[in-house]
Amino acid sequence: MNHKAGFVSLIGKPNVGKSTLLNAMIGTKLSITTSKPQTTRKKILGILSSEDYQIIFLDTPGILNPEYLLQERMLDFVVSSVKDSDVILFVVDIKNDPTGSKTFEDERVKKILDEATQPKILVINKIDESTPEVVENLKNVFIKKNIFTKIVDTSATMGINISQLIKEIVYLLPIHPKYYPDDQLSDENERFFVSEIIREKVFEFYRDEIPYSTEVEIEEFKERQTGKDYIRANIVVERESQKPIIIGEKGLAIKKLGKIAREEIERFLEREVFLELFVKVREKWRSNPNMLNRFGYKVEDND
Asked: Which residue intervals make up region (G4) (predicted)?
């Protein structure tokens, strides 16, 4: 009768460690992570179940100033996630914003937090890269502002205070039966996670604008009773000039990308796969509504 369950949005500026924090709380790698901002583009749902509670986390893209339609859709994912939530985790990177001024002077951040009536937890992340004095100063700043129900300092990469954060979340959740079976970790299928793994490797492997201009589309996914599963994926770029960069001289770059992506996919699926990668050009796909809908950047209207 006292079982708790609810939806918890992880929001914040780009590259503050939201996805790493989600993975730390879930206890497995669900959301892709790289050192580059804007790695997360969609709302990723992750489920943490126990006998007494179930937390449905919504990992969201970073709050930014949209420069093209894809980024507008990414911001829409943040807003819709907040509307769907029982609790909000606002994550700030103390290493890059020790006073909080860069984050909380952002008009979009202010608007989202002002309009959200749910309990809000401020998560001060990356404390392993700061000092106790700086952490304490930032805490005091936000205690005075009275925006947040609770403030928790963490290091997602080091696992510091993760269990404490989970306790604070559970305390704020409503009494409710489980939404999902105990053994379910997400609502996404294997195809989605395979495409995200390949995209993660693109972010890690290529520089400058290339990662931001690419999308990964799974064209074929065959599970086989005998032999390796077959996966055919397209790496979509915006311009013809980007295609040879992805492929590399004599195809060496895409071969290396395919190898590291395949190894990660096999770890995730816990079975062997045969992965084929192809490069397709779709002009200005990031500003094309039809292409964005096809790639899954469509925010459902729940009203």
From this structure: 125-128
Residue 23 is assigned to a ligand binding site:
no
Is 299 annotated to bind ligand?
Answer: no
Structure-block tokens of residue 231? 């996966």
Burial label for 123, CB within 10 Å (0-12, 13-18, 19+), is: buried
**Number of structural domains found in the chain:** 2
How is residue 127 written in tokens?
Answer: 């404390």
Question: Contact at 8 Å (CB) between 142 and 122?
Answer: yes
- 4 annotated ligand binder: no
The reply to whether 134 and 220 lie within a common domain is: no
Q: How far is CA 233 from CA 41, 87, 156, 197, 219, in A?
A: 18, 36, 31, 11, 5
Any binding-site annotation on 46?
A: no
Token pair of 79 as six digits: 């807003």
Is 59 annotated to bind ligand?
A: yes
Question: Would residue 79 count as lying in a domain?
Answer: yes
Q: What is the mean pLDDT of residues 198-215?
A: 95
- The answer to whether residue 202 is domain-embedded is yes
> Residue 126 is part of a domain; what is its CATH number?
3.40.50.300
Give the pLDDT score at 301. 58
Q: Is 19 annotated as a binding residue?
A: yes
**pLDDT (0 to 100) of residue 303:** 46
Residue 18 marked as a ligand binder: yes
The answer to whether 12 is a known ligand-binding residue is: yes
Q: 170 φ, ψ to 5°?
A: -60, -40
pLDDT in tens, 46-75: 999 999 999 999 999 999 999 999 999 999
Q: Are residues 39 and 161 in the same domain?
A: yes
Q: Sheet holding 44-49: strands in order across?
A: 44-49, 53-59, 4-12, 87-93, 120-125, 150-153
